[in-house]
Amino acid sequence: MSKKPEYGLLIDYEYCTGCYTCQVACCQEYGWEAGMSGMQVMEIVQKLPKGKAYLNYLPFPTELCVLCAARTKKGLQPACVQHCMAGVIKWGRLTELAKELGRKPRMVLWSPR
Ligand code: SF4
Ligand code: SF4
C-alpha cells in the first residue's frame, strides 16, 4: 500500500494574473523540455450575462510535480511558491492547508498520489 501524502500545495487562484512564472520556475528548477512542467497554468473562460466573459487563471500541478522535496528538505520553499509574486501557491502539511481551505472560495488543495 502506498504511503499517504503528508504535504501538498494550497492554490488560492483568486489573485493569479496568469503570468506563468510558476510554470517557468519549475521548468528552470528541473530542466524540463519545452512544454513540460510540474505546474500548468490553465485559462478558464467564465461566461457572464450580456455576452460578457471573465477570464480566470488556475495554476495546477501536473504528474511531474515532485513537491520540490529536495528543496523543502533544505528548508527552502518550492520553486513555484518562491517565484509567485502574488502569493498564490502555498506549500505545507495537508492538515494545516486543509484548515485554510474553508476560509474562502476559489482555492484548491493538491497533493501527489
Ligand atoms: S500562480 Fe503566481 S506565478 Fe503562477 S501564473 Fe499565477 S500569479 Fe503567476
Ligand atoms: S512544487 Fe516544485 S515540482 Fe511541484 S510544481 Fe512547484 S516547482 Fe514544480
Into which percent range does the helicity of residues fall? 10-25%
Radius of gyration: 15 Å
Distance between the termini: 12 Å
Discrete helix count: 4
Largest sheet: 3 strands, antiparallel
Shape: globular
What string gives the helices and strands in order?
EHEEHHEHE
- Distinct small molecules bound, one entry per kind: iron/sulfur cluster
What does this protein structure show overall?
With 113 residues, the chain is α+β, with helices and mostly antiparallel strands. It has a single domain, classed as Alpha-Beta Plaits (2-Layer Sandwich). Helices cover 25% and strands 29% of the residues. It contains four helices and five strands; from the N terminus they run E-H-E-E-H-H-E-H-E. The strands form two sheets. The chain has a three-stranded antiparallel sheet, with helices on one face. Strand 2 and strand 3 form a beta hairpin. The chain is globular, with a radius of gyration of 15 Å. The N and C termini lie close together (12 Å). One iron/sulfur cluster binds next to helix 1 and helix 3. One iron/sulfur cluster binds next to helix 1 and strand 3.
Give the secondary structure arrangement, pairings included:
Layout: E1 7-12, H1 21-30, E2 39-47, E3 53-61, H2 69-73, H3 79-83, E4 89-93, H4 94-101, E5 107-110
Antiparallel strand pairs: 1-4, 1-5, 2-3
The structure holds iron/sulfur cluster (2 copies).
Residues 16-22, 41, 57, 59, 84, 86, 88-89 line the site of one iron/sulfur cluster (SF4).
Features:
113 residues, alpha+beta, Alpha-Beta Plaits, two-stranded antiparallel sheet, globular, binds iron/sulfur cluster
